[in-house]
Amino acid sequence: MSEQFSSRLLEHCVEAFSQLPGVGRRTALRYVLSLLHRKKEDAMVLAQSISQLLEEVKYCSVCHNISDTEVCDLCADPQRDHSTICVVENIRGVMTIESTGIYRGLYHVLGGIISPIDGIGPDELEIDSLIERVQSGEVKEVIFALNPTMEGDTTIFYISRKLSNQDITMTTLARGVSVGDDLEYADEITLGRSIVNRVCLDAQKP
Description:
Oligomer: single chain
Strand content: 5-15%
């Protein structure tokens, strides 16, 4: 046991918190000590919320967004534009674009982007299910809302080639989002304008 901890339980809890993204050991220790100073009932609410999330959370069978039901509220909403699909890397992408209040279509969460250096290939992503959705015939436009990086552009190129024989429009966000920036850090006005002013991909059909 590390000398800075008087309790192995405390150390183990700090280690667990420090596994979260952006949380170092000092921050983790501050979180744990804060929990210890709270009423036990309040701390248990957090513990039970995490346990319930891990046990009961679902992923939408259509778009792969986090959901409480088999099909998420967005996919089930008849007021959404079901002819348009916005392709995002992860669930944060859905939340970020929804925060603009501009986009009214559906989503498709890939679960990552193609990155050979990280060992992530097309088979690890939800690409086949996207193709199946497009082939259903209802989809008229696919918007690629991936981070403007080499990996993001590679993923867009790969999927656009897979969809090149479909009678759909394929667009990307306007480059109001700077090259190399993460989508979730773009301000809502810039991101909203990028959606409205999205641009068609170069023709990919052979």
